[in-house]
Each structure stands twice: as C-alpha cells, then as structure tokens.
Amino acid sequence: MTARAKALVSIAIAASLSFSGCQAVKQGAADIIASTGKVSREDAQSLVRTAEVVRSTFAEITEEEEYYIGRATAALILSKYMPYRNEALNSYVNVMGTILAYNSDRPETYGGYHFLVLDTDEVNAMAAPGGFIFVTKGLVRRCGDEETLAAILAHEIGHVAERHGLQSIKKSRLLDAFKVIGSEASRQFNSEELAKVTGIFEGVLGDVVETLVERGYDRKFEYEADKLALSFAVRTGYSPGGLAEFLVGMEEHKPSGTAAGWFKTHPSPADRLVRVKTETAVLGAAPAKLDVRTARFAEAAKNLR
Amino acid sequence: MKKPARLTFLIAAVLAVFVFLLAETVVVKIKTTSLRRDPKFTAPIVAAIKAGDSLEKLEARDGWVKVKTKAGVVGWLHSTAVESKKLGLLAMDKTMKTQASAGEVALAAKGFNKQVEDKYRAGNAAADFAAVDAMEKVRPTPAEVEAFMKEGKLGEFGGSR
Ligand SMILES: [Zn+2]
Prior knowledge:
The complex is a heterodimer of chains A (about 300) and B (about 160). Chain A is mainly alpha-helical. Chain A contains 14 helices and three strands.
C-alpha cells in the first residue's frame, strides 16, 4: 500500500471508530494517521475531531428538534395574527390539508400537520417547520373553489416536506447549536448549557420567522413548492388548474402600494405562472374540477367577512 | 463450561447475531402514529405506536413498510415515520450524513427539546404557545377524512382521469 493509500484508509478507520466514543481508540486512530508521515500530529488529531462532529447541516436537525422549532415559530406567528374563530372553516381546511399531506412526499412529521385560518384581510399563507400551516381569511376569500385552496395548502406542505424553513437558519448558528448539544447519549442540559442553547434557539427562530414573514424564501424554493403543489394536488385527486387560477387572480389584483403577505414574500405571480403552466402541461392526464367540491368550498367559506 | 456446551453456545451466539442482522429493525421517529392493516392512510388502524418504538421490518412497498410490533401485531407504516436502525451498524462505507441521520433516535430528547421550549417561553410571554396547543389538538378523525374523500371523489374514490 502506498503511503497515501495508507493515510486514506487510516482516516476512514478513524472516522468510523470515532463514533465509538472511546478515547483510546481515537488517540490510536490519530497515531495511525500521524505515523504515515503525510500529516502532522495536530492535523491528525483534528481530522479525528472533525469526524466526531457528526451534525453540521440543516439536514441533520432531528424531526423532534424541527417540531420544537416549528412550535415556537407558530407561537410567534400567532403573536402577530389572531386565529379566525370559525370552526366549520377550520375543520374544512384541516381535513383537506390532512388528505393533501397524506398524498405528499412527507406524510408523517413528528407532530403531524395542523392547519389554521388567520383572522386578517392580508392575503397570506405560511408554513412553520414540521407542519404548522397558516392561511389567512383574506387568502381564502381570494379562492374561487376547493381546487384553488388545495393548491395553496399543497404549496405550503411542499415547503414543509422539503424543510425549506429550516434552510433559512444561518449555518454558523447551527454549528454553535450542535457544538453545545454535543453527541453523547440522551441527557438533560445543565443550567449553563440550557441558557446557551436557548439563546441559540432564539436566534434560530429569528432566522425562520424573518424568512416566513418578512423576507420570503429563496425563489428556487418557491418554484419548487409550486411544482410540488401541482404534484400533491393531482395525486390527491384535484385538478391541477387551481394554482394557475390563483396566480392569475394575484396578478390581476396586485396591490398598488407597499406589498404585504404573499405579495411581499413570494416571486411575482406572472413569473410563477409561466413555470406552473409549463409544469402543468407535462403532467398529462389529470383529474377534472368537480361541482360537488366547488359547492362545499362555497359552503365552508360562506361567512367570510 | 465443558467443551461441547461451549461450542453449542458459540454456534447459538453466531446464529443470534446472524438473525439479528437479517431481521432489520426500524425505529419510530415521530411522536405518535398508527399502524394500518394495508399500505394506505385510509386503511383500518391495527395499533397505536409512538416515538422510539422498535419494530421488525418485514417488507417494503411504494413508500410503505410492513412491520411487526414487539407484541406481534403486524401492520403498515409510511416510511417517513421510521428510520432504519441497521444503517448505523452496517453502514461503515456510507457517508457520515447517513450515520448522523441514523442516529436521530439516539439524539431524541436532546437539542431543541421541551426543556429549551420551557426556558424560551419563560422569557418570551408574547409567543402564543396556548394557541399552538389548541392548533395541535385539531386532528381530523379517520371517519371525517374518509367522508370528505368520498364526497369530493378524491383519492381512491376518484373517477376516471
Ligand atoms: Zn411559498
């Protein structure tokens, strides 16, 4: 074996072994790497250390952590907006949303999907990590039928399924969190660690809420959510036309003053429409709109004032 | 220990390890969910399961896994509800990311958890967790889901495309 191959193998062994958590093994691994003469002792030690930091990206946030980030994000959204007290409408949205989630790429999340209509005329929809999905009264009023509302809910489920919210967390913050949390077996935080982790948690919420409410996601995530919305809706049995219909309405009723809600956080309806039309075309045969659904939507949304 | 006994023990141990590796175990990674008779969400529920439960994987099909509980109940679960335990043991050649996600259950109750939420709530009275709790309580029943699908001709109740 060449020295280089030997070094590579040693690093691989060190990486695997460092999961064992045994100090002697780790030291041994560092020694092996250093003995190849290709890397200094310090570098060898740091290689082993790097292998130990198992978590480094948003993808490694556990489902349970995502749930707690989502709960607090939802709590902050609900400090800005009031729930709309309309049990019939909320129940309708929850049943429809649940069925759409069943037909998504990620039907199961730690705490499940939950939907709520917010009492505001602003046209908006938001999804907190893990599946806390909000649509405003103003948005429901803009929908002409069940297909349209289904498209919006499916778009938000798409953001949850792809963990777009978690991707707005600053990388440095995640690394800080993972450092404090460590990688040993389950345990409670002591008060010093708890203060530190809670401080980072607050920063995480700041990143997520700012993205959801103020800044909006990266455009590519919005286009991805639109694409997923079409796919989830069609899989559920809805006509794919709902999303295009909504976007046409958005374009026609663009606010003249400062943009708020979906107008502010989402790409222009016209841009989205172009893509949605192309993607709808490739879907092929899809379910058609149905009067019985349009009628029950009208019934559920009848008292929107 | 006499020699034959020792040999029998050794064979048994090797067999046990072999069977263990063959019988893939999956662990539930979501708070609570249901085990269903068939691989679809409208199928009858056969058992309730919760985070951390270990299940024996029997079969996989279209994003669903057929499992057996410790109590011997067999049913189907969507694959997004579980993670494979075998990965962590045998995936030496896999990427570290795989290792990390396979360790998800081991990490449960750590990181951003109830303890952190409680501490956060104590310092942030404006965050409306009571409203979130109310939101979480709303869970459509299987009967409501089925009635909605039937009436709206959705999913398996849909007509021709
Ligand atoms: Zn969006």
